[in-house]
Amino acid sequence: QVQLVESGGGLVQAGDSLRLSCAASGRAFSTYAMGWFRQAPGKEREFVAHISWIYITDYTDSVKGRFTISRDNAKNTVYLQMSSLKPEDTAVYYCAAARPSSRSNAYLTERRAYDYWGQGTQVTVSS
């Protein structure tokens, strides 16, 4: 069982930066693929970014060039560095962990790829 705890959310202005953290419990963190998703009011939860256990990353188009996902296996933590934030980035951001799988990394853009989820952290970007 893996527990995920997000932190770092808050209220910022458009153009500001913010770094989200997700601390994971358990010994197998280095073998998990990690992802960030977000859910705006009235919308479906959507993929934002993922990082595989071998540090391959992918991003949804709307955040490419602005967000960076990274991981520190020594700290069992995954990060989402967000810059040039826009009001449309406002959402609850969720961290997720996926157990090792033979599926391709493309599968990691889907919610069903993930086995564990955090409770989320609110990010609000004012214009």
SSE diagram, text form:
Blueprint: E1 4-7, E2 10-13, E3 18-24, E4 33-39, E5 46-51, E6 57-59, E7 67-72, E8 77-82, E9 91-98, E10 116-117, E11 121-126
Parallel strand pairs: 2-11
Antiparallel strand pairs: 1-3, 3-8, 4-5, 4-9, 5-6, 7-8, 9-10, 9-11
What does this structure look like?
The chain has strands at 4-7, 10-13, 18-24, 33-39, 46-51, 57-59, 67-72, 77-82, 91-98, 116-117, 121-126. It is mostly beta strands and 127 residues long. Strands 2, 4, 5, 6, 9, 10 and 11 form a 7-stranded mixed β-sheet that branches. A hairpin with a 4-residue loop joins β7 and β8. The protein is globular and about 40 Å long. The N and C termini lie far apart (40 Å).
Structure in a nutshell:
The protein is built from no helices and eleven strands. It is mainly β.
Helical content (DSSP H or I, runs of 4+): under 10%
List the helices and strands in order: EEEEEEEEEEE
User: Shape, please?
Assistant: globular
Number of helices: 0
Strand content: over 45%
Distance between the termini: 40 Å
Number of strands: 11
Low-confidence stretches: none
Major sheet characteristics: 7 strands, mixed
Rg, rounded, reads 14 Å
Q: What is the averaged pLDDT score?
A: 96
Structural class: mainly beta
